[in-house]
Design brief:
The chain has about 500 residues and is α/β, with parallel strands linked by helices. It is built from 15 helices and 28 strands. The strands form 7 sheets. It has a 6-stranded mixed sheet with strand order 6-5-4-1-15-16, with helices on one face. Strands 8-9-11-12-14-13 form a 6-stranded mixed sheet, covered by helices on one side. A 5-stranded mixed sheet has the order 21-18-25-20-26. Strand 2 and strand 3 form a beta hairpin. Helix 4 packs antiparallel against helix 8 and helix 10 packs across helix 15. It is globular, with a radius of gyration of 24 Å. The chain starts with a helix and ends in a 7-residue tail after the last strand.
Length: about 500
């Protein structure tokens, strides 16, 4: 028997023997979040990490142990299985859903990135999935009905009735292209949670929130609704080595990209969690792959290999696109992307939201697959005449965001100083920003539609769309250059403290 299985069983025996009573029900929740298409293992600092086939092995072991001892296993996904890798982008989550089906996923919450391929793309996922997609706060405006089921009911082995309630970030309305959520209304998830808890009174004693709201919002949800036993969260990619307990509610989250599988073991008595332990299981090369899942991933990966392996350019330096860095400071990859957009369009200024850059690239050959990992959303790039006042508004908004934030801007053609969360100074190609002047801006259709809250960029004249996506332009411009060596140049200076704009 494999070592991982021996250690798992030993741990469960110790936990069970500590306080087992015949009236108790033993429950394990296994949970994933923000998988973002990372079905294959990736190398991080020389270590192979992640991989859905490895995760499947652990899920099978835990479920097998529990099934053999009359215990319950719930396997939950808190959303954002889509968008982040070429495989996900090209196949729109098809291999992801096939894997989760085979792994016996119980329930999944609708995340904001489930809308990245439009409502038709989400409908395709729903049709393929053998598990319910849940969200209590997404409504179809035309009918007033919910887009998906708000919750799912289940029964634990001792007869305890339970419910999983899905909640989706209200910010989804501005975190994807407007056309992707046209005709939908994202209601306040806190208010909707309260309504569902009222509806479930008398129907369920064990209550689990499966949320795509972010860690801080989950803490607030727990404070407002102490009747929730567990919250399985997502959206903020928070790595919680153990649950955060807010009153009686256990708040859990398992990082992102399939690098960890969350496990929460509990005794549940009369709907109350009387004892628990929670932890993250690191997914690495020590865990063997489930051969059936590996076969699915391998099939799709081989179909992509020829296309994605094409080298488009070479970089002499590592290109930094890690989530926290690109969302909180100037990076050389952010500079490169914006420079190439500005060069391609001939605009005076180019900006891109940090959330639109999704991966780093190591020094050496840059493949088409690398390009698609960096910019997987395929947003059209457009130019637009904006006033200096509009641009200042947008930069002030970006400066005021809590960093790291997907709305943090990477820039080209301008320099700015931010003190604390206040914009201090802006120069356009060496000259102070003139509020009354007009400038030509190049950016994505996402930002020009007011995405990430940039309402200022949606005002004024219509954008001039070039008919090319961000990743297509990036690929084309890298091919033209052949070799790149971008640096951090002081385009964005962030100082400590708060001060008024001079």
């Amino acid at each position: 028997m494999r070592q991982s299985r021996w250690l798992l069983i030993l741990g469960l025996v110790v936990f069970l023997s500590a306080s087992w009573a015949s009236s108790d029900c033993y429950v394990t929740i296994l949970h994933l979040n923000d998988l973002h298409g990372y079905l294959e293992p990736v190398e991080i600092e020389g270590v192979s990490t992640g991989g859905i086939a490895r995760i499947s092995t652990l899920v099978e072991e835990v479920r097998g142990w529990n099934d053999g001892h009359g215990n319950a296993t719930l396997f939950l996904n808190a959303g954002d299985i889509l968008q982040g890798t070429p495989m996900s982008m090209i196949y729109h989550g098809e291999p992801d859903v096939k894997c989760l089906n085979l792994m016996g996923l119980d329930y999944m919450t609708v995340g904001n990135h489930e809308f990245d391929f439009g409502q038709a793309g989400l409908e395709k996922v729903q049709q393929m999935a053998k598990f319910p997609l849940l969200s209590a706060n997404i409504y179809v405006q035309r009918t007033g009905e919910r887009l998906t089921a708000p919750y799912a009911l289940f029964t634990l082995p001792d007869g305890t009735r339970g419910a999983a309630i899905g909640l989706t970030s209200k910010d989804t309305a501005v975190e994807t292209l407007p056309v992707n959520v046209e005709g939908l209304r994202f209601a306040d998830p806190v208010a909707e949670c309260g309504e569902q808890l009222k509806a479930l009174a008398g129907q369920a004693e064990f209550l689990v929130g499966v949320t795509h709201l972010g860690y801080e919002n989950d803490l607030e949800l727990a404070r407002q609704f102490p009747e929730l036993d567990v919250i399985i969260g997502a959206h903020s990619h928070t790595v919680l080595a153990e649950p955060t307990q807010v009153g009686r509610t256990l708040v859990c989250q398992a990082g992102s990209y399939g690098r960890w599988l969350g496990q929460l073991d509990m005794f549940v008595q009369g709907g109350e969690v009387t004892r628990h332990r929670g932890f993250l299981r690191t997914i690495d090369g020590r865990i063997p792959e489930d051969p059936e899942i590996a076969k699915i991933v391998s099939k799709y990966a081989s179909q992509l290999e020829t296309q994605l392996g094409k080298v488009v350019a070479t970089s002499t330096v590592d290109l930094l696109g890690e989530r926290d860095e690109v969302r909180s400071q100037e990076t050389n990859l952010g500079n490169l992307v914006c420079d190439l957009f500005r060069e391609y369009t001939g605009a005076q200024i180019a900006i891109i939201n940090g959330g639109g850059i999704r991966a780093s690239i190591s020094a050496g050959p840059i493949t088409m697959g690398d390009v698609l990992k960096v910019m997987p959303f395929s947003n059209l790039v457009a130019t637009k005449r904006v006033t200096g006042r509009q641009l200042r508004e947008a930069l002030e908004f970006a400066a005021g965001l809590e960093r790291p934030s997907g709305g943090f801007l990477q820039v080209s053609g301008l320099e700015m100083v931010i003190r604390g969360k206040t914009l201090q100074a802006v120069k356009i190609q060496g000259e102070p920003l003139d509020d009354k002047a007009e400038y030509t801006l190049a950016t994505s259709e996402f930002l020009l539609a007011g995405g990430d809250g940039f309402a200022a960029l949606a005002r004024g004249e219509e954008p001039k769309y070039l008919g090319f996506t961000d990743n297509a332009i990036l690929s084309e411009m890298l091919t033209r250059r052949g070799s790149v060596s971008p640096q951090v140049e002081g385009r964005i200076v962030i100082e400590a403290g708060e001060a008024a704009l001079n």
